[in-house]
């Protein structure tokens, strides 16, 4: 390195730093000195300061504040900690294969390197905010302040119990659903324990299906109640287009949650027919729905954890569900839900109240359905009716498929299939209809329909020709239920399904 000094500084520099070696001295001119390798003399820090160097400082804010100094830019947080024998867990050896070295950056986040590919992969999987960094992968280019997340063996046990897919804590927007059975205590008092458990499990299954089939997740079963949520990812930016897309996602998520709730009442009606026959007892439910930002992560003992949602939004949803009892309603939604999609809802009561634990007055709305028919819910309700009143329709459709095959397919080159090999067409169509509100699950069910057609020796190019066959079967079988409106809805739904069949 070449450094220039003015002649007035030469004498003083030589007296203080004998390690400086010069090759010429010509007073009155700017001099050029060559620095030999600098040993670790007491003058070292001052020399580095003159030459423009400065020690980087990493401050760990734990029980005691600890300052660690790094003499080289680009050194990772973990490397500096190890150099100073500072206790920072790194079970994988600093290879980004665990998260035990992660730290929370409280100061100087702009002085850190961007996440590399390995750290970003973990951050995305765990839902970390920008302040949580892997010490083994994060390079330091200026002063920073951090806090260890893993401080002792108890912390370590908590973290090492996390699965690869577990969430260590994130904030997201979610629609929270609380469900409770009305009058379930009286059923438990008059029936055997085995019957109570059996019925409750059946009930949970029937009520959970609409949640899962509309993109929701079950958080937990609480006694005779259900806590569920429908979430969307965090906002990824502040651009106007991204904000609009995020608002659209919130609207669609709320509608999916509403559809799930209304579908629960359909499921309850079918469930009660069976319960009336077997136990001479019927059930009713109360629902509460609210939306907002929640905390989502793995909560519990290191050996008994579950993913759950936390926050005030969850508490409000729970209290809305309980409010149904006082207001003699079945399904209450918050003003947040109503302000977003209220124009599409049919409301029979508005409630102004103070919820327990809340100082502000809040509005709640009793929902009885959508103002205009929701295509997915409409189609599902139609199939409920045709399966109940005209269960033979599926056999008629199977016969029509066989006739279609005989007329349109060259059986000489078709696949031979034994009747026993065929999967149940009724179960396949029923699953498709149930999962219309969940595109991910729907895709799997559509592949089963493709397998059925192929096992019937119907080539892919003829799949679209089966759409009118399917619709004609429904119209002829259920003339009392059939009308122009249901015809348009089912045609659109089954055409979309067939398109996905052809694209799969």
Radius of gyration from the alpha-carbon trace, in angstroms: 34 Å
Cα(first) to Cα(last) distance is 64 Å
- The share of residues in extended strands comes to 15-25%
Runs with pLDDT <50, length 5+?
Answer: 1-53, 412-420
The secondary-structure class comes to alpha+beta
Mean pLDDT: 82
Helix content: 40-55%
Give the beta-strand count.
18
The major sheet is characterized as: 8 strands, mixed
Apparent shape: globular
Tally of separate helices: 16
Give a description of the structure.
The protein is α+β, with helices and mostly antiparallel strands. It is 43% helix and 23% strand. Strands 11, 12, 13, 14, 15, 16, 17 and 18 form an eight-stranded mixed sheet that branches. It has a five-stranded mixed sheet with strand order 5-4-10-7-8, covered by helices on one side. A three-stranded antiparallel sheet has the order 1-3-2, covered by helices on one side. α11 packs across α16, α13 packs antiparallel against α14 and α15 runs antiparallel to α16. The chain is globular, with a radius of gyration of 34 Å. The N terminus is likely disordered.
Short overview:
The protein is α+β, with helices and mostly antiparallel strands and 504 residues long. It has helices at 10-16, 44-50, 77-83, 117-126, 153-160, 184-189, 193-212, 240-279, 312-327, 335-341, 375-389, 393-408, 425-434, 439-455, 466-477, 484-503, and strands at residues 2-5, 20-22, 31-35, 56-61, 65-70, 75-76, 102-107, 132-134, 139-140, 144-148, 170-182, 217-222, 225-232, 284-301, 304-310, 331-334, 345-353, 362-370. Strands 11, 12, 13, 14, 15, 16, 17 and 18 form an 8-stranded mixed beta sheet that branches. A 5-stranded mixed beta sheet has the order 5-4-10-7-8, with helices on one face.
């Amino acid at each position: 390195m070449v450094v220039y000094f003015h002649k007035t500084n030469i004498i003083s520099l030589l007296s203080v730093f004998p390690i400086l070696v010069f090759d010429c001295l010509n007073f009155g001119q700017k001099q050029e000195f060559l620095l030999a390798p600098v040993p670790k003399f007491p003058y070292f820090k001052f020399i580095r300061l003159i030459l423009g160097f400065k020690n980087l400082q990493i401050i760990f804010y734990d029980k005691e504040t600890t300052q660690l100094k790094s003499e080289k830019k680009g050194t990772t947080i973990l490397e500096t900690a190890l150099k100073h024998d500072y206790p920072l867990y790194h079970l994988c050896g600093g290879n980004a294969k665990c998260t035990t070295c992660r730290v929370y950056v409280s100061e100087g986040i702009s002085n850190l390197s961007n996440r590399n590919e390995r750290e970003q992969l973990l951050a995305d999987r765990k839902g970390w905010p920008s302040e949580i960094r892997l010490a083994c992968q994060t390079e330091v280019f200026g002063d920073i302040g951090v806090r260890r997340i893993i401080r002792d063996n108890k912390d370590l046990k908590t973290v090492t119990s996390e699965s690869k897919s577990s969430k260590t804590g994130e904030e997201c927007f979610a629609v929270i659903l609380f469900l409770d059975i009305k009058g379930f205590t009286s059923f438990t008092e008059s029936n055997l324990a085995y019957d109570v458990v059996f019925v409750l499990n059946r009930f949970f299954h029937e009520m959970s299906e609409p949640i899962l089939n509309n993109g929701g997740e079950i958080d937990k079963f609480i006694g005779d109640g259900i806590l569920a949520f429908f979430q969307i990812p965090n906002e990824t930016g502040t651009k106007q287009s991204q904000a609009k897309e995020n608002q659209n996602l919130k609207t669609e998520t709320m509608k999916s949650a509403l559809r799930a709730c209304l579908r629960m009442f359909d499921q309850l009606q079918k469930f009660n027919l069976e319960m009336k026959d077997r136990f001479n007892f019927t059930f009713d439910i109360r629902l509460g729905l609210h939306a907002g930002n929640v905390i989502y992560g793995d909560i519990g003992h290191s050996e008994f954890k579950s993913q759950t949602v936390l926050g005030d939004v969850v508490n409000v949803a729970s209290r809305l569900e309980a409010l149904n009892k006082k207001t003699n309603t079945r399904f209450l939604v918050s003003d947040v839900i109503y302000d977003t999609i209220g124009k599409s809802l049919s409301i029979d009561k508005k409630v102004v109240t103070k919820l327990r634990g809340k100082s502000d007055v809040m509005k709640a709305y009793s929902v009885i359905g959508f103002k205009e028919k929701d295509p997915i819910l409409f189609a599902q309700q139609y199939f409920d009716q045709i399966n109940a009143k005209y269960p033979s329709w599926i056999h008629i459709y199977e016969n029509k498929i066989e006739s279609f095959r005989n007329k349109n397919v060259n059986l000489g080159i078709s696949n031979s299939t034994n009747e026993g090999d065929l999967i149940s067409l009724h179960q396949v169509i029923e699953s498709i209809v149930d999962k219309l509100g969940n595109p991910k699950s729907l895709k799997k069910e559509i592949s089963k329909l493709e397998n059925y057609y192929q096992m019937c020796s119907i080539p892919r190019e003829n799949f679209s020709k089966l759409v009118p066959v399917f619709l004609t079967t429904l119209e002829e079988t259920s003339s009392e239920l059939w009308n122009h409106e249901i015809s348009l809805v089912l045609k659109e739904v089954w055409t979309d399904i067939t398109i996905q069949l052809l694209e799969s």
